[in-house]
Design goal:
single chain; 8 helices; elongated
């Protein structure tokens, strides 16, 4: 019998120290299993293999008396626990309340006032009026940046804002304006 099987047998019999002895023996194998599972996941996964191992470990030995018939059964249970954690994580990321419909937008590459036709100019004007009602500083910052051609630092100085405040205001106002201009009429 391997050391893992002996320790699993002791854990099954209720030995509280067995789990502490088991982790160092199986940690590297669990880590490899987690890395293999993570390699099959899509890009942008925020969960790391180490965190996956730790979460799976807590699920495996968190029960009062874990029941494993041997080394193979233990690693099958570990693989199943990791699979469930990855599925739960994917579902959590996909929920609308967690921003599943949101997409990352590079604010520096976003040009909302590029079109020069009259209709687009009127749309920007109306959107800026709406923005001014809820965020006057944001509307002013947009006007200075887009229509006066000022840099963020120059616009911040003109409005008497701290540079960091101007940067945050710029990010919000520009995203808001983009959303307003791209939503269906």
């Amino acid at each position: 019998m391997s050391a893992v099987t002996v320790i699993l047998s002791r854990a099954q019999q209720g030995d509280p120290k067995a789990a502490e002895e088991l982790l160092p023996l199986v940690y590297e194998e669990l880590r490899r299993l987690a890395a293999h599972n993570m390699a099959q996941e899509s890009a942008g996964q925020t969960l790391q293999p180490t965190a996956l191992v730790h979460e799976a470990w807590l699920r495996l030995v968190g029960a009062n008396h874990p029941q494993f018939e041997g080394r193979g059964h233990f690693f099958c249970a570990a693989a199943e626990a990791m699979r469930r954690i990855l599925i739960e994580n994917a579902r959590r990321k996909g929920r609308l309340k967690r921003g599943a419909e949101w997409r990352r937008v590079d604010l520096e590459k976003l040009d909302v006032a590029v079109a020069t036709d009259d209709e687009a100019l009127l749309a920007v004007h109306e959107a800026l009026d709406k923005l001014a009602a809820i965020d006057p500083a944001g509307a002013q910052l947009i006007k200075l940046r887009f229509f006066a051609g000022m840099s963020n630092i120059e616009a911040a100085q003109a409005l008497g804002l701290a540079e960091r405040t101007a940067k945050r205001t710029w990010a919000y106002a520009r995203a808001w304006l983009h959303e307003e201009l791209t939503k269906p009429s």
